[in-house]
Amino acid sequence: MKITTILGARPQFVKASVVSNAFKHSSIEETIIHTGQHFDAQMSDVFFKDLNLPQPNHHLNIHSLNHGAMTGRMMEQIETLLQQNKPDWVCVYGDTNSTLAGALVASKLNIPIMHIEAGLRSYNREMPEEINRVVTDHLAKLLLAPTQIAVECLEKEGIYRGVHCVGDVMMDAVLTFHHRAKETSYILDKYNLNPDSFYLATIHRPSNTDNNERLSAILENLTKLDFPVVFPVHPRALNQIKQQGLDNYLNHKQIITIPPVSYLEMLMLESNCSGVITDSGGVQKEAYIFQRPCFTLRNETEWKETVYAGWNHLVQPENLRDTITNFTYPLESPSFYGNGDAAQKIVEILIGKEND
Ligand code: UDP
Hints:
With 356 residues, the chain is α/β, with parallel strands linked by helices. It has helices spanning 10-24, 41-50, 67-85, 97-108, 128-139, 148-156, 169-184, 187-190, 206-209, 212-222, 235-243, 263-272, 281-289, 304-308, 320-325, 342-355, and strands at residues 2-7, 29-34, 58-59, 89-93, 113-116, 142-145, 163-165, 199-202, 229-232, 255-258, 275-278, 294-296, 312-314.
């Protein structure tokens, strides 16, 4: 069976690390197309190197464009490659422009699509990712949902066929790489960090970075917490901080500004911090897996179960400090994301389809 995987952004490298390795140990032959959406050493190369992700067979080098131009250019090149490769399936992950471009092209070429992380919904159509997810789910033939809530979201949209709740491949990734992170990462020493005495912050969603009032409120409120905040700055956030003249926060004594870190370093920061402040999807989930309080700078989240369980609070920047102070640790953390065998289940489903 031939599968062509289309990926291009940081969270997709993390997800693919476990799935591509499961493909490697099966009869599946994978071709990887890297769109180039994330392209530099810290946002891309380090993931391929640290996570044993097979090198892409094709690199499209498409980045730093508006949504239409980026998706359109990706589609053009993906179409040519899929016509040459003629895969049995196209595999896409999550909710980026690379996901959408791959799904649109594959569907027009009548190549079945498998969508890993299907069924996620924030119900906020102003989020570009929400559009990408909804369209991809409606085009996919195999919908690999991480949770039962995701399955229910698909059912609400009339999608029943091809849906499998396999667990979350990011859970697989944490279980696969946490041990290696503990053995090889020195990030705590590098920045003089003691466990449980720093917060970890990541922001990159346009709704937080592209509005001056919002971005400055976030940065200002990060300076008011009881511990310093380690802030690995996403390139989009860095550009916006500079463009908006907020550079003074990058040198603030309460904010430890660092470049984006590798996944192994991130696991060390997440598992040792006293709380996570984020607008990332994946980071909310990882905070939950490590049982760290999470404060999400958004009005809604697609990872609703973390909120229902009491570990994740949706918060406005000005309420950050009070919400952190009043946080009470839930007594339980149900295992929403499976037990680390999602990638294996995906392979078994595919092999089962081949034998149908
Ligand atoms: N991540 C990382 N280094 C960083 C920030 C995030 O390795 O400096 C990882 C994080 O652990 C998670 C993934 O990147 O696995 C999340 O990606 P991101 O926040 O960019 O995207 P989202 O999940 O919001 O789509």
